[in-house]
Amino acid sequence: MTKIIGLTGGIGSGKTTIATIFQSFGIPVYIADDEARKIMQSSEIINTIKKTFGTSVFENEVLNREKLAEIVFNDPEKLKELNKIVHPAVKRHFDQWLLNHVSNSYIIYEAAILFESGRYKDCDVIITVTAPAESRVRRVVERDKTTRELVLKRINAQWTDEQRISKSDFVIENNSIEESKLEVVKILKILKIKQNEC
What's the rounded mean pLDDT across residues 130-158? Predict the structure, then answer.
């Protein structure tokens, strides 16, 4: 049976970089945040967001993600409401995706809010990716063309590294690609040994 490796870490920790390393070893990767973005463009989800958050988060019928982010990261209740809309749709999509990868020993499920969403319960193994706080903020400001203040709000809306690590099987300190690659190799070796013991 295909084992699900949950890959998580705070915003800007470099989870996607680590996911790409796993992918280079032939392991299929599902990036929940990317899929959620696509799902949020479906008419069903758009209509529900309109009903819940009003039309002010839309410009010419297109969802303005920055406006929505500003609302939900300033109000924990609004964030919960958005998650209630998006999470079930992502779960359905992932379950479908998983059916296409049942011949693989492992797949990676990469999600920033693996624990907050409760999806960690579906994982057989959990890996947390960490990185220095300043590096994380810098990465996200550059990547999302956003402000430091907004990034810090998003960081504070997520679990801390300590909370994630306490519930994880492995931790990758993402300081450099070379070191991270060695960590991935080490984890894959351990998983292979465990698999052979079963």
Answer: 91
For the chain, domains (ranges, CATH) are 3-197 (3.40.50.300)
Residue 104: partners with Cβ closer than 8 Å, 6 or more residues away: 2, 27, 28
- pTM given for the model: 0.89
Asked if residue 30 lies in contact with residue 19, where contact means CB atoms within 8 angstroms, the answer is no
Which residues are CB-contacts of 130 (< 8 A; sequence separation ≥ 6)? 9, 10, 13, 161, 165, 171, 172, 173, 174
Residue 113 buriedness (CB in 10 A; 0-12 / 13-18 / 19+): buried
φ/ψ of 57, rounded to 5, equals: -90, 10
Q: What pLDDT does 44 receive?
A: 92
